Amino acid sequence: MTSSYWQELMCRLDTKVEQMVEQIGDKCPHFAGKDGKFDDISSDWWTTGFWPGILWIMHDMTGKDLYKEAAWHWDGTLEEWFIKPTVEMHHDVGFQFLPTAVIKHTITGDEDALRRGIEAANFLAARYNPAGKFIRAWNEDKYGWVIIDCMLNISLLFWASKVTGDPRYKHIAISHAETTMQYGIREDGSTKHILSFDAETGAYIENFGGQGYSPESSWSRGTAWGLYGFINTYRHTGDERFLNTAKRIAHYFISALPEDQVPYWDFRLADDERMFRDSSAASIAVSGLLELAEIVPVGEKSLYANAAERILRSLTENYATWEQPEHEAILLHGTGSGTSFIDVSLIYGDYYYIEAVAKLNGWKHRIF
User: Where does substrate bind (predicted)?
Assistant: First the structure.
């Protein structure tokens, strides 16, 4: 596909996101249903960072101040939850602070954003269980739970080591990735969502289906989290084990796609249950595949780059709201799980879609 296609797409996104700025206003968006209107959730929710992340990328790509002005306050809003933490503040501080504080500091050099990003990294590092060598998921009684999603959250720890010079953050991230790699990735490259360990001894117990169809299935968004997370871990460490794991997951993801290149919400659904796609899984995977294509030898690049472009083109031509200017989201047909947020628009799907298009237009900042 020619570069002009992606350039034109970036222009279309500029027009669309300008409209979204007006439509969304001060809302904290998570999902939009059939009416095309985003909800307005509490800002401690795990997806809070993705709307400001969209704004920061658009500012970086276009230079327009309206995006920066709309994004500026979000890391400060999130910081307030460290003063009065809720049950929703957990392993997902990476998703909250990477596309707010970290990208803000990266682009503008803002010192408060730097401080907030490090504060979030400290919070995440404090969730590390040294007996099991993992970062615990969620709160309440889930002391020994680990989830595949956290493979992208650990980018916050790699960043913290880089900006502070303290290797402890990086060591925690690597240990967590090793544990996830050992217990959460199957030989065929499919992934498990939730792993359970004995929090006292660190011994592995079992895995749960979580947001996937069953413990034996492979939740498509979880597979995308794993793909992107392991290639990022390789990028930060140079450890070939993580690269090979990312490749294995990528091969599984690509080979399991249906004809239109956008996965169902789980890769191992029964034939009569294949009803709902997950466009967010597709967009996350595209951004990860583009990273993989950048890193592998020349002879392997086309496998991952071509797959990424096929998926992205399908999203653009079959799943987007270009003809619905009143719709507040970009992508349709996202699915959170088989029991919640089914066939809706998801703000994180929009974020990774824009991130991927920006990469194809030369965007070089890497947040996740």
Answer: 92, 149, 221, 225, 337
Contacts of 73 (CB under 8 A, 6+ apart): none
Where is the binding site for substrate, in residues? 92, 149, 221, 225, 337
How many Cβ atoms from other residues are within 10 Å of residue 156's Cβ? 27
Q: Could you give the count of Cα atoms lying within 13 Å of 217 in the half-sphere of its Cβ?
A: 19
| CATH code assigned at 184 | 1.50.10.10
Structural domain count of the chain: 1
- Binding site, residues? 92, 149, 221, 225, 337
Query: Is residue 323 classed as helix, strand or coil in its secondary structure?
Result: coil
Catalytically active residues are: 92, 149
367 found inside a domain: no
Locate 251 and state its tokens: 């091969």
| Ordered per-residue pLDDT tens for the chain, 368 residues | 678 999 999 999 999 999 999 999 999 999 999 999 999 999 999 999 999 999 999 999 999 999 999 999 999 999 999 998 899 999 999 999 999 999 999 999 999 999 999 999 999 999 999 999 999 999 999 999 999 999 999 999 999 999 999 999 999 999 999 999 999 999 999 999 999 999 999 999 999 999 998 899 999 999 999 999 999 999 999 999 999 999 999 999 999 999 999 999 999 998 888 889 999 999 999 999 999 999 999 999 999 999 999 999 999 999 999 999 999 999 999 999 988 999 999 999 999 999 999 999 999 999 99
